[in-house]
Amino acid sequence: MSKTCFFTSSMMTTVDVNEESIPTRIANTNQFLDRLQAVWPHQANVLMISSSPLAYEINDYYRDIYKVSFQLSDLSYHAIDVLDARTDYDIHDYDVLILAGGHVPTQNEYFKKINLKETIHPYQGIIVGISAGSMNAADIVYAMAEEVGEALASNKPNLLKGLGLFDKRMVPHVNELVGQTLDGLDIMVDIALKDSHQIDFYAIEDGVYFYLEKDVLYLAGEADYYRDGKITKIGKHNALTQL
To answer: Using CA atoms, how far apart are residues 235 and 108, in angstroms rounded to an integer?
Structure first.
């Protein structure tokens, strides 16, 4: 079995109803669910690797969402476990790894603490990155400012060493970020576009993802490619573009 990776902005496991997130069948935008189902083993053992190792209630909350969403999505499983500060699991005992979303630098430090980079490269199975988890899967991570004070902390982009599972960088949830401000700065213009003079990256909407199969990397859907202060459209909706 070879390693198959999905580096997503969102796994699209919930819908919002009356300001509450309800588990739902995973959206098949850009054939995400089709491709996931095609490689998903029967009665999979799934491990969610946390972004916040001490946030036990939040970690369990998302695990419980996955349990329902996977059932609705015809993704059978034997167990879904959470790797955080309470637990010590061997990733090689699992068929599917989920790199959870959250705060990128916090997760990056946790990945280093558990030596995930060293253990994940020989792993043979399915890896699904979600938001921060996808960002930290890169070789060099562009940790764009996301919390108050971070945008003003430095004139240089915050670059971190990631897991090295792919050589691209991404900014997720761009559909939510356009027109938003942080520390008085327009996130995508004053922060992202400015930082692109020093590091290149792809800005993707929920439903767009990077797909790594047999060591070939594809973009599923359309993205904005930021480089040298310029933005270029890459890819097409409902199509794979080899990168």
So the answer is: 29
